User: Fold this.
Amino acid sequence: MASTQIPPSISIILPTYNGAAYIRESLDSCLNQSFQDFELIVVVDGSTDDTEGILHSFSDRRLRILKQNNQGLPAALNAGFAQARGRFLSWTSDDNIYTSEAMAVMWQYLQEHPQAAMVCTDCLIIDELGRTTSYNNHTWACFLYRAEAAALAGPYRPEFALVEDVDFFLRLRHYAGPIDRIPRPYYKYRQHNINLSARQGAKRQFVSLRLHYDLVMRGVEQLDLKELFWDRLSMSALYRDHQSMDTIVQFAREQKLPFVEELVSRRNLLKTPAGWLWNRLIIAVRGQRARLQGGVLRLTNRWRSKTS
Assistant:
């Protein structure tokens, strides 16, 4: 007999691997949404800590638990979305926190803006203790997208682990339509010493380079390749990751890019103490400029919201 259960409007996927330290707070933030018509699918990706015990302490009917051997974040996401029934989709991490209005605000936005394939919001950056340390108005951390847009974009690609989210969102924007932004924070993104991005920041640079090169070759992105290689080489140098720097140069050689020798010269400079210091100062100035621009944008948005 066919099921008569009405599918939820939203499916939220929460992949986790040994996330017991923060997952209860993350689960609470999902289950306490003011928008109630959703399902929460937690994919336990081979955890060996107390994650499952914490999950089974919840009795909410909207919570579903999937288990698999450890396969990495892209595979966990694909497994979760394969079971999702919602017309709108999102995912979060086991150490991050939604505000209670996040889903309601994004769902309403997509109802009112049918041309948008996805909507995202600004977020607050918090530390291990949940204290706010900064504000981010450019990352895709808190988001909701249409299921039909996801079908056009395709699955998360394991070969681009560490930047699988960027890869997916760029393909979604290219194949499905615009990504809009709500310039207010509805998410708390936790930065700490044990999270994935902090541990593997240097490795991420080469994976990111391969990703954007792939998307340029597919026609999904239009980028200046020389500037792309320059930027990733500079970021690898900041981490003093000489192996990644050499790998970037080798990749450029394999692709027979015309600026390889310039890239070699820059790599050699950045390996020196003076070159490293010069590079660090350039990146610091660039970051400060971005923060100032973000502050001006936040003040402008506050002024507009008060006068509208």
